[in-house]
Amino acid sequence: MGFVTKGSKASLMAGGTFGALLLASAAWIAKAKSSRAGNRLGAVVATLLSYVMCKKFVKSQKFLPSGLIALASGVAVIYNVYEGFLVKRKDNEVTSSSSSDAAPATE
User: Fold this and answer.
1) Is 36 helix (H, G, I), strand (E, B) or coil?
2) For the segment 50-83, what is each residue's pLDDT rounded down to a tens digit?
3) No. of H helices and E strands in the chain?
4) Is residue 53 helix, strand or coil?
5) Model pTM?
């Protein structure tokens, strides 16, 4: 909106950068389902976007567009942190317990 209403090139570049990074994250998630790197990238980008939009929302006190984007980014942060960090830890715990069970069986 900043570029359309005020001609702000900084707003256009920031929006394009965030959009490109989120598209890269989505493509990475779709391509490599076993990899958590796409979710981790998405979590970092969504956290930055949420921070920026929360600051704008607090300053303007207008829900649209900054409040809505901050809310959506917050949901994206929660989802991507869960998928990118917490689920990975559970997979590692299962793998490590399985490998410790398998070690005595091979001896």
Assistant:
1) coil
2) 999 999 999 999 999 999 999 999 999 999 999 9
3) 5, 0
4) helix
5) 0.74
* Position 40, amino acid: R
Residue closest to 68 by CA, chosen among 47, 54, 48, 51: 54
Q: Quick one: three-class SS letters along 39-100?
A: HHHHHHHHHHHHHHHHHHHHHHCCHHHHHHHHHHHHHHHHHHHHHHHHHHHHHHHHHHHHHH
Q: For residues 53, 58, 60 and 62, what is the CA-based torsion angle, rounded to 10 degrees?
A: 80
- What is the distance between the alpha carbons of residues 41 and 48, in angstroms, rounded to a whole number? 11
Q: State the amino acid at position 46 in one-letter form.
A: A
Rg from Cα positions in the chain: 19
What one-character DSSP code corresponds to residue 33?
T
Q: What is the C-alpha separation between 39 and 80, in angstroms, rounded?
A: 5
Place of tokens 């796409």: 38
Vertex 106: Cα angle to 100 and 107 (nearest 5)? 100
